[in-house]
Amino acid sequence: MNRDPLPVRITLIVLAFLVMAVLIGLPLVTVFAEALAKGWDEYVLALIDKLTLSAIRLTLITALISVAINLVFGIMAAWAIAKYDFKGKSFLITLIDLPFSVSPVIAGLVFVLLFGLQGWLGPTLQGSGIKVIFALPGIVLATMFVTFPFVARELIPLMQEQGTEDEEAAVSLGASGFQTFWRVTLPNITWGLLYGVLLCNARAMGEFGAVSVVSGHIRGKTNTMPLYVEILYNEYNFTAAFAVASLLAFLAFVTLAAQSLLEWKRAHS
């Protein structure tokens, strides 16, 4: 039972709400207020604009591909770290955490150095007709880099806590590796896996720094929603900029609601 004096508790609670209101509440209110400043008609027109729809489509495609690939590799990495003992495990964990400590802009520059026209692999890829930088593959690679840790990092402690007894029992009863994963491991990590995918998807749709470097800002082709918001704002098209930003904010609310639902289901499962 908390024994702090009542004035202390009230002060801390009020301060917490004030900070949340200033840092989160006011900016969100401002986004939607500016987006609707000229009425619903202008708001809808901004969202159905051809370039806006292109940015939305590219964002969704990038998120879908990045999350799907990170889902597979995240499960593989978490399985290897949690279920096996091998030399280099700590180094592998460090590599998984690397995107958390590296600036996304630096990550984008690295991909340009690797796959750009003057990069290490760029001329070879260009000769084969494969374009990575200033195209969808580069945007997906940059997004994958910054979002890779989310699935793996959510699963590693969960799998380590569960141990290997269930899998060993399944194998001893004659189950194959796939059957063991599908019928034993996956049901035990379902909520953690969904939570990691949710966080990965949220970051993928909102990524700016790394994607900005590798995209080239080609209108109608390589602008994701965050990049398109910047372009509209720099062109003083504030209504359209805040309209697209409000769509990103709405996606953030959906993500938050899904996150809360998953946490509730995990606590009551």
How would you sum up this structure, described in words?
The protein is mainly α and 269 residues long. The protein is built from twelve helices and no strands. The mean pLDDT is 89.
Descriptive key words:
mainly alpha, about 80% helix
Query: Main sheet?
Result: none
Number of strands: 0
Structural class: mainly alpha
| First and last CA, distance | 27 Å
Series of H and E elements = HHHHHHHHHHHH
Helix content: over 70%
| Number of discrete helical segments | 12
Average pLDDT figure: 89
Q: Radius of gyration in whole Å, from Cα?
A: 22 Å
Shape: globular
- Ranges with pLDDT <50 over ≥5 residues? none
Beta-strand percent range: under 5%
Helices and strands, with pairings:
Blueprint: H1 6-35, H2 40-47, H3 50-83, H4 89-101, H5 104-115, H6 122-127, H7 136-162, H8 165-172, H9 177-206, H10 209-215, H11 225-234, H12 238-268
Task: Please sum up the structure shown.
The chain is mainly α and 269 residues long. It has helices at 6-35, 40-47, 50-83, 89-101, 104-115, 122-127, 136-162, 165-172, 177-206, 209-215, 225-234, 238-268. The longest helix is centred in the first third of the chain and has 34 residues, at 50-83.
